[in-house]
Write a structure and sequence with these properties.
Number of helices: 6
Radius of gyration: 23 Å
Number of strands: 3
Largest sheet: 3 strands, antiparallel
Strand order of the largest sheet: 1-2-3
Helix content: 55-70%
Distance between the termini: 90 Å
Shape: extended
């Protein structure tokens, strides 16, 4: 019985070509920009300022931001047409996030003989499924463009309908030291005054 030759792929990301790494970075940057726009949508709907928007939304997961934005728009949208438009835009962004997750959460490897780059896609929802698929820097750049455009479409909507967080008029306080010891020290200082 003959043994089939096995291929040993190079999974070291430091060996990926520079243009490929640039494309992966572009996907991440485009995704961050798009998620920032969803955060601003929440602040715009609530009519709070930029700093309050950040304080409220920064620790939210992307799916939670989307659910909150949809619920707030349903409560505050001018009419069902506006609510439907936001739903469609957020669905575009959710699809963009799925593409981003496929890129960011799976490993890349290089075929030792051909130099082709593959992504090892794995999922374990009910059963383990794995596949190797070729991927190019151009494909990743195309995905980055779709992710970015989904966010820009939402921003266009927000500008047209004036759904943007307000400018902060009050200065932002220096962050307080918030440990129990620091609170007690401030309390003691207040009682001594």
């Amino acid at each position: 019985m003959s043994k089939l030759p096995s291929v040993v792929y190079d999974f070291d990301p430091r060996n990926l070509p520079a243009e490929f790494l640039r494309a992966v970075g572009l996907v991440v940057a485009a995704s961050s920009q798009t998620e920032k726009i969803v955060q601003e949508l929440i602040g715009g709907i609530l009519q709070i300022d930029e700093a309050e928007t950040q304080a409220l939304t920064l620790q939210m997961s992307a799916p939670l931001r989307h659910h909150v934005a949809r619920a707030l728009m349903e409560l505050n949208g001018a009419n069902s047409i506006v609510v439907d438009q936001v739903d469609e835009l957020l669905e575009m962004i959710a699809q963009a996030n799925e593409r981003r997750n496929i890129i960011v959460h799976n490993s890349f490897c290089i075929h030792p003989d051909t130099g082709e780059i593959y992504t090892l896609r794995a999922a374990a929802r009910g059963s383990l499924q794995m596949s190797l698929q070729t991927v190019t820097a151009q494909q990743l750049e195309s995905e980055a463009g779709k992710i970015y455009e989904a966010g820009i479409e939402l921003m266009r909507f927000m500008v047209v309908f004036g759904v943007l967080p307000g400018r902060r008029t009050r200065p932002i306080r220096e962050p307080l030291k918030r440990s129990k010891k620091d609170r007690e020290a401030r309390k003691t200082l207040r009682t001594q005054q």
